[in-house]
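Weekly modeling sync, notes
Attendees: S.R. (lead), two postdocs, one rotation student

Agenda item 3: backlog of single-chain predictions. S.R. asked that every request posted to the team notebook include the full sequence so nobody has to chase files. The rotation student volunteered to paste the first one in as an example of the format we agreed on. Action items at the bottom.

Example entry:
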Amino acid sequence: MYLLTLGLNHRTAPVALRERTAFSPEQLPDAVRSLVASPQVQEATILSTCNRTEIYCRQEQIATAPVFNWLREYGDLPEDALNSSTYTLPGEQAVQHAFRVASGLDSMVLGEPQILGQMKTAFSVAHQAGTTGKILNRLFQHTFLVAKQIRTDTAIGANAVSVAFAAVDLAKRIFSRLQEQTVLLIGAGETIELVARHLKQNQVRHIIVANRSIERAQALTSQLGSEAISLAEIPARLHEADIIVASTASTLPILGKGTVESALRKRRHRPMFMIDLAVPRDIEGEVGELDDVFLYTVDDLQNVVTANQTSRQEAAVEAEKIIDLQVMRFMHWMRSLDSVPTIRSLRDKIEALGETELEDAQRRLANGENPQQVLEHFARNLSRKFAHGPSQALKQAGQEGNASLISTARRLFKLSP
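Predicted structure, as returned to the notebook:
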């Protein structure tokens, strides 16, 4: 039996191809069943995210063509593009890759935790679809334990490594009950969208998105269940915000000192926490001079992010050591399965010999023979018949000069030199 991983990710394939190889949650059950319908694939799980599509499978023989051809035909994909963008990882490499992916070591953002949940979902779907068995069940359970150990024993996910995440992390440190604060997001681009998603993950209930294009703001708020306003409405609504995060492409500041002073008076000088992620700045620098305002710029956060990235890279080195050890343990278990049929056959043969000799001994006892002689005959015959096959093989090995087999027999039966 063999493990094989075939996939493509953000490093090997452009987004256009990743979109075509992505599987929706509704597609996955039928897709994995279709894959294991092939006689070459016995077990399969498909991990599909915005950054990667990976097929983990067990085969009786190592062959990449069946899985590659299935993916190409299922997605009606161009062979050349797929061939140049996919990677195949057999055996030990597949195990190591699964451990690294689940631990966030293969992600765009080092140490990001979302991929572990996505892997758990992928395995759950395949398991419920009946396409996993002894090997993949053990692989994914071991994978989840390794990821948990790395999260516990290293600092791989301890610190923010994106400006958006760092902004929310800083807000959490200032407001002990972040979910109760009102947040005003100025802009509706990628950075603000990431900030908004991090806020939602932290259960912030009231988010206002202000943007020059109200339609763009509404497109974002419709996904998050929040409120959209225009930039022109900011002066009238600013006093409601405890936290303001700005990131627009404007060449001029969106918030001036006078507007903030007016908002502070309406708030009766309750503090305001502001983060300006824009370059050029969206919030006038003089705003930071006001009492009751805590203003941070993108440079402030970038210094934190850079330090945290170094910390995560150091943690990744420790994580790789854990993975190397756990890969070795998993492969020991998997290789041990190769001996199971031989062990079962040996035990069956010994039991059959024992039953034959036992029946003969019972018959002798029933005929009134001396019990002591019956037991001696039973023991002698059983040991002789068991030793007959190995003895014949060792004699032949001696005749052929097969010292390796003789040495193996000594080790197998724990014989003295």
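Discussion: group reviewed the output briefly. The mean pLDDT is 91.
Action items: rotation student to repeat for the remaining queue; S.R. to check formatting next week.
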